[in-house]
Amino acid sequence: MTSQDPNEPKHQDHSLIPNATAELKGIAKEGMKHPSTKPVLTGAAVGALAGGLLPVVTWPIGLVAGAGFMLYKRIRP
Q1: Membrane-spanning regions, if any (predicted)?
Q2: How far apart are alpha carbons 58 and 49 in whole angstroms?
Q3: Could you report how far apart the first and last alpha carbons of the chain are, in Å?
């Protein structure tokens, strides 16, 4: 028998991929009217800028990483 620690992180549901898919479809359909479009584009721009400034990362990798991070933050605040 195991006891659960109340300080242990809670198990998250496994709906990240369906939520991200629905969010991306909404962005694609509504364009700039969708509430997630501007934060995701801002994250992509910041990531691309950081990728351009850092010697190890190229700007396309930074763009994808920045957009992916902001999309994740929109789905899981």
Answers
A1: 44-72
A2: 9
A3: 34
